[in-house]
Amino acid sequence: MQTETLIYIILAGIAATLLAIFQYYNKKKGMSKLNMLFSFLRFLSIFSILLLLINPKFEQVRLVVKKPNLVIAIDNSSSIKHLNQDVQIINLVERLSNNKDLNDKFNIDLYTFGELFKASDSTTFSENQTNINSAFKQLSQIYRETTAPTLIVSDGNQTYGNDYQFATSTYKQSIYPVIAGDTVTYTDLKIQQLNVNKYAYLKNRFPVETILVYNGNNAINSRFIVTRGNTTVYSESISLSKQDNSKVINFTLPANGVGVGSYKATIVPIDNEKNKINNSKNFAVEVIDQKTKIAIVSDFSHPDLGAFKKSIESNEQRSVVFFNSKEIISQVNDFQLIIINQPNYKFKNLFEALEKENKNHFTVIGTKTDLNFLNNNKPGFLNEITNQTESYQAELNTSYTPFIVDNIDFGSFPPLNSNYGQVSFVIPFESILNKSINGISTNEPLLVTYETNGRREGVLFGENIWQWRAQSYLNNKSFNQFDDFIGKLVQYLASNKTKNRLNVHYESFYNGSGRIIIKAEFFDKNYVFDTRETLNISVTDNISKENKTFPLILKNNNFQVDLSSLPPSEYSFTVRATNENIAKSGSFQILEYNVEQQFLNANVTKLQQLATNSGGKSYFIDNTEGLVNDLVNDNRFVSIQKSDKNIIPLIDWKYLLIIIALSLGLEWFIRKYNGLI
């Protein structure tokens, strides 16, 4: 408390005393006992009121002992159960969680990881993928500013993601791996990798590449076989040894029938081989008899042209050919979609041909576009001409209905260069992306589609979309998300199919270790996305004839269902609306493959290196006796005493108001009782 405040309190006490005595002191009779009581009550009331006016503040200091955290991260993938380590891990975690010494020193937090990372004290060992690096990445956000030694119980086998061995560059905690799994090296022959295109064309041959790996000391002979059903379509003898322990087999298979063809590649197991699951891999190829041809027309070179070609041709069903504005005229009808890059007066004949043939096309408008020419030759919209440019970022329109657009983090993409000025549409259109500047929406379209006279058209009001593809790779370490976005746009624009009120999006086949997501969209009679409808999917196993029904959940601007729980088989399905007699059917196949069952041993080397890099120590699950003592006796992990200082004003002390009310009420009651009022 400040000295100035203390002086005010003393003066308040003196003033309250003088006022109380002045009111009840009788010059003739002095102070009677009753007047002395009245004076005291009046003093109490006045002094309390003056204290409220002064409102002194008091410091409250509270000491808190903060224990360090002990993070126990448990591998919840199915490889743990495959290596018969599930019971040992459950027993170990239970012992550690209930250990008195650990609980006295640490706050114990339990997490599980596999395909997903989450806080949990229960394990199922059923996840089909493992991303250990992602677990460390999320832990680094949670325990950024605290001491949290981390106990990771795992076999160290990761199926996807960045190498977790170098996670210590961002995760600055001591890591103590408990290695679960067999460390004995067994003789093993396996298919390490199988590469095949997703699509093939009818009456062509499609290539297959297979990498075989042998782990053993003796030379062996085996046979590599590829079958389709009960028919062998390829076979080759192989010889491997300790020195020559891998082999790459390249061959081609014929695509004789339209549809999904399922194949099984097998390397015949050798004697006494422990893991025979990794000797086989299933794969499938969808054979199609038509290829979508897209023409890109431009009179000058630009990086956007290459980005469009790469994204479009990432799907084997599509091919791209480049033309200038003159070459394309005689070949317009050879293509399902024409992409026009920054047109000028040289494109007049092309626009006339497109109009005459009622051809689908997509126009890219940039800083080199002749807007006067476009306004005169492109009916449907008008560009305001200001002769100025602006950089615009993208903002996803979640109300876009013609097809499902996933948010691929458009807000993180670099801005596109565009002409400054408003665009006025004179026909109905739907905006996929809108323009924004510094995060502020302008409500101006950046990417739109529309339909007129049975023709589908799209317009991009900006250039340098190649930077988006590059940024998408930086964000996701893959071009897939951006390429899928462009692929959906091209698929929509290249098609002249009539609108359906119920659309279902699915793949022809799925790998058994991946997520199986089927999406659908439902429109009302005005073709506006209808969130009120309830959709259900009925799935039938074509082999066992078992039927299951699942509800589709509304998520963002589409309905979704996760069918990852279905076992590998061939399925047919029907998506049906509840309130209307509308349904859509299809079929897909789930290939039998579990990447978690490909491992024979724990990855001891990486886990031990992880411990060394982080300043921790590794243990084998069969020998963890010293683990508790090492953690408890490590002087790096000590409790910290912190003091919390709170400044409390007197006006917050409610009892002072009670004192004022009681003293004034008691004084009034006694005076009334004695007939002085």
Task: Please provide a written account of the structure.
The longest helix has 22 residues, at 3-24. It contains 14 helices and 36 strands. Helix 7 crosses helix 11 (480-493). Helices cover 25% and strands 35% of the residues. It starts with a helix and ends with a helix. It is extended, with a radius of gyration of 37 Å. Strands 16-15-17-18-25-24-23-20-21 form a 9-stranded mixed β-sheet, covered by helices on one side. Strands 4-3-2-5-6-35 form a 6-stranded mixed β-sheet, with helices on both faces. With 677 residues, it is α/β, with parallel strands linked by helices.
What's the overall average pLDDT, rounded? 88
Q: What is the gyration radius calculated from CA atoms?
A: 37 Å
The residue fraction in helices comes out at 25-40%
Structural class: alpha/beta
Largest sheet: 9 strands, mixed
**Total E-strand runs:** 36
The portion of residues forming beta strands comes to 25-35%
Biggest sheet strand order reads 16-15-17-18-25-24-23-20-21
**End-to-end distance, in Å?**
41 Å
**In terms of per-residue confidence, which ranges show pLDDT below 50 for 5 or more consecutive residues?**
none
Number of helices: 14
Shape: extended
Outline the secondary-structure elements.
Blueprint: H1 3-24, H2 33-54, E1 57-66, E2 69-75, H3 78-82, H4 86-98, H5 100-105, E3 107-113, E4 117-119, H6 132-142, E5 150-154, E6 175-179, E7 188-196, E8 199-201, E9 205-215, E10 220-228, E11 231-240, E12 246-254, E13 259-267, E14 280-288, E15 292-297, H7 303-312, E16 318-323, E17 337-341, H8 348-357, E18 361-364, H9 371-377, E19 381-383, E20 389-396, E21 416-419, E22 423-425, E23 430-437, E24 440-452, E25 455-460, H10 466-476, H11 480-493, E26 502-505, E27 509-511, E28 517-522, E29 535-541, E30 547-551, E31 553-555, E32 558-562, E33 569-577, E34 583-591, H12 604-614, E35 619-620, H13 625-632, E36 640-649, H14 654-673
Parallel strand pairs: 2-3, 2-5, 5-6, 6-35, 8-14, 15-16, 15-17, 17-18, 18-25, 27-34
Antiparallel strand pairs: 1-36, 3-4, 7-9, 9-12, 10-11, 10-13, 13-14, 19-22, 20-21, 20-23, 23-24, 24-25, 26-28, 28-32, 29-30, 29-33, 31-32, 33-34
